[in-house]
Amino acid sequence: MKKRLLMLVTKRKFAIAHLLVALLLSISARTQLPTAQTIASQMKVGWNLGNTLEAICGETVWGGATTTQQLINTVKASGFNTIRLPVSWDCHATNGVIDPNWMARVKQVVDYCMNQNLYVIINIHWDNGWLENNVTTSAQASVNAKQQNYWTQIGNYFKNYNERLLFASANEPNATDATGMSVLLSYHQTFINAVRATGGNNSSRTLIIQGPQTNIDLTNNLMNTMPTDQIANRLMVEVHYYTPWQFCGLTEDASWGSMFYYWGNGYHSTTDASRNATWGEESEVERGLGLMKSKFIDKGIPVIIGEYAAVKRNLSAPSDQSLHVASRLYFYKYLVNSARSKGIIPICWDINMQMYNRSTSAVLDQPVIDAIMQGAGISTGSYVTLTNRATGLLIDGMYRSSNGSNAGQYSSSGSDAQKWVLEPAGSYVKIKNKATGIYLDGMGRTANGSICGQWATSSSNNQQWLQVAAGSYMKFQNRATGLYLDGLGATTNGADLGQWQNSSSNNQQWAVTTLANGRRDVSMPVVSSPDESMAALALNPNPFTTNFKLTIPDPGKVLRIAIFDIMGRQVETIEQAAILNSLSLGASLKSGVYVVKVYGVNEVRSFKVIKK
Length: 612
What we know:
CATH superfamily of the largest domain: Glycosidases
Helix content: 25-40%
Mean pLDDT: 88
Strand order of the largest sheet: 1-2-5-6-7-8-9-10
Oligomer: single chain
Shape: globular
Distance between the termini: 117 Å
Low-confidence stretches: 1-11, 19-30, 517-531
CATH architecture of the largest domain: Alpha-Beta Barrel
CATH topology of the largest domain: TIM Barrel
Structural class: alpha/beta
């Protein structure tokens, strides 16, 4: 009996132990983070918080500002769902120990991104070049020791974060041959081993390794093996794209080559031909990204373009500033479209911090953001107003909902009839009215002065418009007819919206103002009320004799200021870069009645002023 009882107890213990093992294995399986392929399918387009956390050795020393939740909110609202955080660590370490205050600050910025459900990548960036400039056999042991040390600390600090946090081994490691590639793989292997050893979610976190110099051709030729990982399908590859450098980054002519101002088919200058790109255009994009697709994507290894950009130059005659700006937008749109079509994740570098005001979080370059989103086929659900440069009237659907109805123009009212969505349609956009849901339609009209109509959605080219940059304004060219949206100089409320062949007239130029209430996620915390800041605008004296003072409590909330005469003609404009807390205006105006319009993020405030 005792023997039988002992056997029963032993069997029961064995069964319980077996059950516990199975349970532990089940829990382990359930807590594994998603695969790199799954995560890559969710990461659409990204933005770099550059010149900030990687600055040597302080967040603001490279001209940036202290990063806020509001800035990250604005980036999310623009349509980006991934943020890459370049970070320096070595200059924040003493005797190999990372400053806990710095670690906490990086965590705070990561949390800003997590609050918006963004994917976020943290790396070891240039960091005075301790890794990037030392991909050599002589430095291999010391660099690997430092790589092991830092990633152990970083990994332990962030190991409980979910799959939306990704780690990247390096930035642009300078390997150029097979020997350097072998050394670089050892750095990546150390990175992987160190992160995995910290446990927690790091056991299955997606990690990103960089090709040599993050150069596409070097990566294709040299990176023929991947590091070893204890868990399958958790690695991504990173390359960068600044091709051709003469267009993307060169800011003065060099001995080896001159700057390119114009890039892409249809965007070359006939009068400034020496500045046309002579290589590195669409076919090069397809070739380079095609290599990454066949070498990695097609084999189940996701690829990110960790950085890409094209600098915006300020040109003087005889160079064509408008054509340069238009070709730059085309570059962004084409590159992003090509990358996304191949399953590659593009993450733009905010070159010279031109996209967002890092202090106020205001959008500075909406056309580039729009080009990126159009290239990615992403509709942010944002509404815009379209204000004529010559007259100040807005394109207005006039609440007309019947096919073939005329589109109109009206002074700012805030009505839904003046709010439009720019829906991507390949390289074009369709312009949809918020109030009625119907679209601006050229109606196949080819005569100058013909009226622009409205129609329910269709696949007709009459509903597709090409956005053409004209300085800080946009022109809209109909795909079917080639005519442009034109205000025709109309200053009367309710006037019809017209069309005309291409001209340099301000009647064809439109200010595209994004409305924050059409973009904001319901989960997004509102840091400050734009309406309150606009309501606090003050103008005095009125009437005035020489000039008047316009007081603006929050200049970051103001996109543009324009002054119109009694005939509705725009006589003065102040662009965002020149807007301050206090402006003295009106000195050049003649005696008469004027309307001052202040274009904000959410609304337009108008003031009637009289000069004696």
